[in-house]
């Protein structure tokens, strides 16, 4: 599990691509390597990957074809920066919201509005995810826990403070960039449960108090 509080952004040192498979190698600073072991989970751009190998500062991760197809890691090349978050531990402060690291879609940046102390980004709002992308709801974008500022039809926006712009890749994000998206799992659970309940006439009758009445 992750919290959506990105710890840093790192350049990918090496990408070894094969058919439906890729290995990413990054150079982790010492502070980020403490306690890190083979098999540990780390989120790259919000995508949960497993540490394959540790060699000094070099940390390697494998990604299968499905991961490369669904996430923007499929287009990452050596030198590109990605957001990094180590897996949460029991007792950690939850500064964002709980995430699984399972990316559901890629969305394009449609508009960028920047001022001295604020950055507003507008994104696509995919039809399949409309029910979960709500005004003032949570969303994870490239692994960064954010609050949706506004929803307008098939688009939504977020506001980024200077700290977020400095720590994450969003400081240099441009219109047209593909961004990994994971909806808030609690919102998804509530929406899906209510939808199923309302679709069942028996349950709907019980909720409205019409069961057994003629």
Q: In whole angstroms, how far apart are the ends?
A: 50 Å
| Number of structurally distinct domains | 2
CATH C-level name of the largest domain: Mainly Beta
Q: Main β-sheet, in a few words?
A: 6 strands, antiparallel, barrel
Overall geometry comes to globular
Query: At the third CATH level, what is the topology name of the largest domain?
Result: Elongation Factor Tu (Ef-tu), domain 3
**What is the share of helical residues?**
10-25%
Q: In terms of quaternary structure, what is this?
A: single chain
Could you say what the CATH architecture of the largest domain is? Beta Barrel
Domain Lumazine-binding: 1-97, 98-194
Protein name: Riboflavin synthase
Pfam families: Lum_binding (PF00677)
Lumazine-binding repeats: 1-97, 98-194
Brief summary of the model shown:
The protein has helices spanning 30-33, 65-70, 162-167, 185-199, 201-208; strands at 8-18, 21-27, 41-44, 47-55, 58-64, 81-86, 105-114, 119-124, 138-141, 144-152, 155-160, 178-183. The protein has 214 residues and is an alpha+beta fold.
Architecture blueprint of SSEs:
Elements (H helix, E strand, L loop, with lengths): L7 E11 L2 E7 L2 H4 L7 E4 L2 E9 L2 E7 H6 L10 E6 L18 E10 L4 E6 L13 E4 L2 E9 L2 E6 L1 H6 L10 E6 L1 H15 L1 H8 L6
Antiparallel strand pairs: 1-2, 1-6, 2-5, 3-4, 3-6, 4-5, 7-8, 7-12, 8-11, 9-10, 9-12, 10-11
Can you describe this structure?
The chain has 214 residues and is an alpha+beta fold. It has two domains: 8-86, Elongation Factor Tu (Ef-tu), domain 3 (Beta Barrel); 105-196, Elongation Factor Tu (Ef-tu), domain 3, CATH 2.40.30. The protein has helices at residues 30-33, 65-70, 162-167, 185-199, 201-208; strands at residues 8-18, 21-27, 41-44, 47-55, 58-64, 81-86, 105-114, 119-124, 138-141, 144-152, 155-160, 178-183. The strands form two sheets. Strands 1-2-5-4-3-6 form a six-stranded antiparallel barrel. It has a six-stranded antiparallel β-barrel with strand order 7-8-11-10-9-12. Strand 1 and strand 2 form a beta hairpin. The model has no long low-confidence stretch (mean pLDDT 92).
């Amino acid at each position: 599990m992750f919290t959506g509080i990105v710890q840093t952004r790192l350049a990918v040192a090496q990408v070894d691509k094969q058919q439906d498979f890729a290995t990413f190698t990054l150079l982790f600073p010492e502070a980020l390597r403490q306690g890190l072991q083979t098999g540990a989970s780390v989120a790259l751009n919000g995508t949960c990957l497993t540490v394959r190998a540790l060699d000094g500062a070099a940390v390697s991760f494998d990604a299968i074809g499905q991961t490369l197809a669904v996430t923007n890691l499929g287009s990452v090349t050596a030198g590109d920066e990605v957001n990094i978050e180590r897996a949460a531990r029991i007792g950690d402060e939850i500064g964002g919201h709980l995430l699984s690291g399972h990316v559901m879609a890629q969305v394009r940046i449609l508009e960028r509005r920047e001022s001295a102390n604020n950055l507003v980004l507008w994104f696509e709002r995919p039809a399949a995810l409309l029910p979960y992308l709500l005004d003032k709801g949570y969303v994870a974008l490239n692994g960064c826990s954010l609050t949706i500022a506004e929803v307008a039809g098939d688009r939504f926006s977020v506001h980024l403070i200077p700290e977020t712009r400095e720590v994450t890749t969003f400081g240099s994000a441009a219109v047209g960039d593909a961004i990994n998206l994971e909806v808030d799992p609690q919102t998804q659970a509530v929406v899906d449960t209510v939808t199923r309940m309302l679709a069942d006439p028996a349950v709907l009758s019980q909720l409205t108090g019409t069961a057994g009445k003629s």
